[in-house]
Amino acid sequence: MNDIKKMLAPFAGLCPACGRRHDAAIGRVEIGKGMIERLPEMMADLGNRPFILADLHTWEAAGKKACELLAAKGAAFSSYIFQEDHLVPDEKSLGAALMHFDFACDCILAVGSGTINDLAKLLSRISGKPYLLLGTAPSMDGFASASSSMIRDGLKISLDSTGPAAILADTDILRNAPMPMLQAGLGDMIAKYTSLCEWRISALINDEYYCPAIADFVRTCVRDCVENVEGLAAREEKAVEAVTRGLILSGAAMTMAGCSRPASGIEHYFSHIWDMRGQEFGAPHDLHGIQCGTAELLSARIYERILKIRPDRDKALAYADRFRFDHWKTDLRAFLGRSSEAMIAQEERDGKYDKAAHRDRLERILSGWDTICQIIREEVPSAETIEEILKKTGAPVSAEALGHTGEEVRTAFYMTKDVRNKYIGSRLLWDLGLLEEIGKELFPDERPVAFYTEPGIID
Ligand SMILES: [Zn+2]
Ligand SMILES: [Zn+2]
Questions:
Q1: What is the distance in A from the centroid of ligand 2 to the CA of 288?
Q2: Do 269 and 321 belong to one domain?
Q3: Centre of ligand 1 from the C-alpha of residue 282, in Å
Q4: Whether 186 and 101 share a structural domain
Q5: Residue 239 falls within a domain, yes or no?
Q6: N or C: which end of the chain has fewer CB within 10 A?
């Protein structure tokens, strides 16, 4: 039994911590040095004739070698290699993959990690053929999920697809991935500090489902990555393996929990907002995990500040009273463009700004304040610690380094609460009537404000 199966073994059967059944829905996973040699044997488990999907970069990194190994075993295969320098997961790429697909093939070999994996998941779903993912970079935790992050009609969306039947991660290949991709993988892992913190806080305030066993499982993965962080910049095998395993397992943790809580919180919403603005306005954006790592540093600062709050019921109620839905919509549209429409429609369904619901939450926040602070202290390291971790890999340590002004960061922070119907730090601050007060304090900008004042609030 390999590492991954051993780590998932405690989750077979009913979970003693939460009483639910957790299915990681994960097939065979092999991680380690020289693992690519196992490719022909793993491929043979899925079919006789693979269709290979790669792009120019992943072809060089691993595709060529994969073909040599398959050919040496006498296996027949077809292939399609995208020729774009920057492959985009949109209609054109999916169309090209489909139009080049060889229906005589009975399985798929995806050589890549991000876009190639997203496309292969859809190709697998459409064709009904199982696929093996041969990873080329440990850059984010979507390896094993059954959804594809795509761009449709110019907007980023998530489409249901099919997860890989098997994953092959050769650390000799992964450790040679471009350094920003290794930094991104670590960034997506340290993001889990706030994800787990917010999961627990929401369970307390909103009675949201929470599994302590899954949370602990993710904590172990993060610890493993951070303990090895010194070796990541040196591309040491052990560090690369820890990040790869952490990413695969935290992806599996989301499947087991049936929600994204174990692996995604406010820091991910900063990243989503930067992506949305990148698409809509050409604003700066970066790799998912790089953005999540930087946003984790911002989030640690936000939580450090939350710890200093003395909640005030009257202030919170007066603040919620001043909220105007039409102003909020205008602000959202101005900052996010078309992506805001889905968020507006979501709020119309969920009613998180409903005043009665706010009063109920507020009472629970006030009575549970000490516990909330205790959770934060247990889950989120200091901003100084996060900065040190990022620095050890050479990753960016400020939003300015990613090209965002203080005002943009502050506005993105306000809007993190609207990305999904998920209770996160910015919603807690809104509930307390302190979102703008703390936003201006943490993310100041001396330059004149372009258009934006306060989300939905008129004084
Ligand atoms: Zn459980
Ligand atoms: Zn992520």
A1: 7
A2: yes
A3: 42
A4: no
A5: no
A6: C
